[in-house]
Amino acid sequence: MKWFDNAKTVRRSWRPLIIAGLLMIMLALAWLPLGDLAPGQRSNKPFLYVTYSVAEPSSAALEDILFDIEQRIRARHEWRLLEQQEAYGWVLEVEVRQDKLLQLNGLLQAPTDKLHAESMQRFRIQGVPDTYGALPEQYVKVLIDLIKNGHETQSDL
After folding, report:
1. Confidence at residue 57, expressed as pLDDT on a 0 to 100 scale
2. Amino acid 39: pLDDT
3. pLDDT by residue (tens digit) across 133-154?
4. Does residue 59 share a domain with residue 7?
5. pLDDT value, residue 9
6. Residue ranges of the chain with per-residue pLDDT less than 70
7. 5 and 56 share a domain?
């Protein structure tokens, strides 16, 4: 009889632990996403798809500036870069041209799945040849501000 009493005591002492474990598992399953979220909803960072172009006539200096912009955009952590254009991602078209001044043109489109009306923002950074080094940095700063403000506005909707 002694063994039987010990078995009941052991079984009773494990019951609260098993119940607590089951509750923790149920809470974890309820908290985790089920996998039916769209890729744009899985991250709180905006997604960005970028295309690059140099206006004719192309030169090595313009290609270097375009490469500098591309590397600065890739190095940023404010957004996630996309390999192809998606409805949930921002679309940026970068164009570098030189007339009398160096011009860094940007056309930024908001994601189309959150807004019914298409939202576009055009911006330009330009300067004299002596400021070539600072223009890509200014371009990326403006881009960060535009995407940050637009993403916060869309998140508030």
Report:
1. 82
2. 67
3. 889 999 999 999 988 888 777 6
4. no
5. 61
6. 1-12, 33-37, 39-41, 113-118, 154-157
7. no
Q: How many domains does the chain have?
A: 2
**Residue 80 shares a structural domain with residue 15:** no
Coil vs helix vs strand at 84? coil
- Judge if 73 and 126 occupy the same domain: yes
* 52 and 25 both lie in a single domain: no
Contacts of 127 (CB under 8 A, 6+ apart): 101, 102, 134, 135
pTM of the model: 0.70
The verdict on 71 and 105 lying in the same domain is yes
Q: Helix, strand, or coil here: 85?
A: coil
CATH of residue 66's domain is 3.30.160.100
The 8-class DSSP code of residue 46 comes to P
The single-letter DSSP state of residue 34 is -
What are the Cα distances from residue 7, in Å, to 12, 68, 93?
9, 73, 72
Q: Distance of alpha carbon 156 from its chain centroid, rounded?
A: 17
- Strand 90-98, strand 47-54: pairing: parallel
Residue ranges making up the domain that contains 17: 1-32
Using alpha carbons, select from 33, 40, 120, 36 the residue that is nearest to residue 82: 40
DSSP at 55: P
